[in-house]
């Protein structure tokens, strides 16, 4: 599962060893099966971390992941701004530098607390405000959008809001509810990635657009189902096996989408794709977000399966 911290070289290596999605899905589930049996896991780098059906995010791991994401958001904004919006471009540049510095501190840190935590919270709040201000200007037709779609700005604003929420409130939550929350959050993000990619591809890229359209339909359906299941979970059922079956589908489709993004990134790096994607890094960025989603599922699923079987036993007795 460990995609975190992978360099571009690692991505290159993966390109040479293509593994079909079916095999990857099998691998994923065999790791889940093992993890269900092995209750204790010494890997302290995973996030969330679960104990007795309650899971909470590992703030340091989350901070390392999201601070790179936020630095890249600032770059994407800057590249999408019209040339005459000098002040916004400078502000975007200052966020790139700010998060670069914070990432250096996070790399050295063993814990996320004190000044580092405070500075990080301040920076995340500031970039949320920046994204919201830009979006407002576009919605009110006060500024030209350049190539920053309003939905892109809202999407990256929500990603930052989620990170801020994890920083401010790292409280343990029931495993099943957290899994459903993650699915509802990330499936919306995945769906929007596809929608944004469709709009960034040149109209002549008919084959890729067609593939992306299929993904869009699939992820719209999955998102709707995740929201329904999350709502049903409000009734606090003792077990909810449908969620596990649904998650199987989510894993399979997210792996396919992840591979689509990775392939699009490779095409962009090799200059074999037409469109208005400002940098191939954008495609790598959305591939990393798909991997983060899969990483979270890989932690949460075994815990949910374990907890469901405990509940079932209790009920059967
Ligand atoms: Fe992002
Ligand atoms: Fe995203």
What would your notes on this structure say?
Mean pLDDT is 89; it is low at 1-16, 39-43 and 313-317. The protein has helices spanning 8-16, 21-37, 59-80, 86-108, 114-139, 150-168, 175-200, 206-232, 241-269, 281-316, and strands spanning 49-51, 54-56, 173-174. With 317 residues, the protein is an all-alpha fold. It is built from 10 helices and 3 strands. Helices cover 74% and strands 3% of the residues. The protein folds into 2 domains: 1-56 and 174-317, Ferritin; 58-169, Up-down Bundle (Ferritin), CATH 1.20.1260. The structure holds fe (ii) ion (2 copies). The site of one fe (ii) ion (FE2) has 6 residues, from helix 3, helix 6 and helix 10. One fe (ii) ion is lined by residues 155, 159, 189, 193, 286, 289.
In which order are the strands of the major sheet placed?
1-2-3
Strand content: under 5%
**What's the tally of helices?**
10
End-to-end Cα distance, whole Å, is 36 Å
Give the biggest sheet: 3 strands, antiparallel
Structural class: mainly alpha
* Ligand species: fe (ii) ion
Question: Level of helix content?
Answer: over 70%
User: H/E series, N to C?
Assistant: HHEEHHHHEHHHH
Principal-axis shape equals globular
CATH topology of the largest domain: Ferritin
Corresponding CATH superfamily of the largest domain: Protein of unknown function DUF2935
Average pLDDT figure: 89
């Amino acid at each position: 599962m460990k995609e975190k911290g992978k360099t571009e070289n690692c991505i290159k290596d993966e390109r040479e060893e293509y593994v079909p999605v079916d095999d990857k899905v099998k691998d994923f589930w065999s790791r889940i099966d093992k993890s269900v049996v092995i209750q204790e896991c010494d890997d302290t780098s995973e996030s969330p971390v679960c104990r007795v059906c309650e899971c909470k995010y590992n703030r340091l791991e989350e901070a390392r992941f999201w601070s790179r994401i936020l630095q890249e958001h600032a770059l994407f904004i800057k590249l999408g701004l019209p040339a005459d919006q000098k002040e916004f471009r400078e502000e975007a540049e200052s966020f790139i530098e700010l998060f670069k510095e914070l990432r250096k501190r996070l790399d050295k840190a063993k814990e996320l607390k004190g000044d580092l935590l405070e500075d990080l919270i301040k920076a995340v709040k500031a970039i949320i405000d920046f994204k919201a201000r830009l979006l407002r200007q576009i919605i009110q037709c006060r500024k030209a959008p350049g190539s920053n779609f309003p939905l892109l700005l809202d999407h990256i604003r929500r990603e930052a809001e989620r990170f801020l929420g994890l920083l401010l409130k790292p409280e343990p939550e029931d495993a099943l509810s957290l899994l459903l929350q993650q699915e509802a959050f990330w499936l919306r993000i995945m769906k929007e990635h596809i929608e944004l990619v469709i709009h960034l591809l040149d109209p002549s890229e008919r084959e890729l657009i067609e593939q992306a359209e299929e993904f869009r339909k699939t992820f719209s359906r999955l998102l709707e189902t995740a929201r329904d299941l999350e709502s049903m979970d409000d009734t606090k059922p003792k077990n909810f096996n449908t969620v596990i079956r649904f998650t199987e589908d989510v894993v399979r489709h997210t792996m396919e989408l992840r591979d689509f993004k990775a392939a699009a990134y490779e095409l962009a790096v090799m200059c074999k794709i037409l469109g208005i994607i400002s940098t191939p890094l954008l495609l790598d960025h959305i591939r990393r977000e798909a991997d983060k989603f899969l990483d979270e599922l890989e932690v949460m699923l075994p815990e949910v399966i374990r907890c469901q079987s405990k509940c079932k036993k209790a009920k059967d007795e």
